[in-house]
Amino acid sequence: MTRSTLLYLGMLVLVSVGFEGIRRVGNTLTPPPHIAGQWSLSAPSSSSSCPLLEFVEAGKESVQVEQSGRYLMLTFSDIHRTQLHARLNDRQLHGSGPSKATCAEGKWLYLTGRLHGGSLEIVLTHSQEMSSSAAPALVLLATQTPSSDPHPLASP
């Protein structure tokens, strides 16, 4: 065999070994659960002079979740159409976005939450510290609207 043939075969072996390594590592990865779609919210009525979210009609609260892998965009059906960017890690949500309420101009909303089977618990606050008693929190419980997304809720 010529030297160039041996070099070519050596390169093919290295590429094959590299692809096999990538395939084996890739087989160990699991995708995050699919939670995209429309979710119905149960929100407590707010008596605050500056609520975190202002819904027009009671009983019509919802959130639209758009998902790309572990990254989420939550759009609430409040009068300001508040949008928050979030990340899904191990069935836990963490995110933030600017408050659109006129009474909270310049403040950020912080989101934490967790996925429980077919429901989603979302906690919104103006403070990153959840233990802070000075920052009011809004706790929302969401259930996925039937037929809002063709993909069923998946679990890892």
How would you explain this protein's 3D organization?
There is one protein chain. By secondary structure, the protein is of the alpha+beta class. It folds into two domains: 1-30; 37-144, Lipocalin (Beta Barrel), CATH 2.40.128. Helix content is 16%, strand content 37%. The protein is built from one helix and eight strands, in the order H-E-E-E-E-E-E-E-E. It has one helix spanning 3-27, and strands at residues 37-42, 62-68, 71-76, 83-89, 92-98, 108-116, 119-125, 137-144. It has an eight-stranded antiparallel barrel with strand order 1-2-3-4-5-6-7-8. A hairpin with a 2-residue loop joins strand 4 and strand 5. The longest helix has 25 residues, at 3-27. It is elongated, with a radius of gyration of 23 Å. It starts with a helix and ends in a 12-residue tail after the last strand. The mean pLDDT is 85.
- Name the CATH class of the largest domain: Mainly Beta
Kindly report the average pLDDT value: 85
Largest sheet: 8 strands, antiparallel, barrel
Termini separation comes to 51 Å
Report the sheet-strand fraction: 35-45%
Q: List SSEs in N-to-C order.
A: HEEEEEEEE
Structural class: alpha+beta
CATH topology assignment of the largest domain: Lipocalin
- Total number of strands: 8
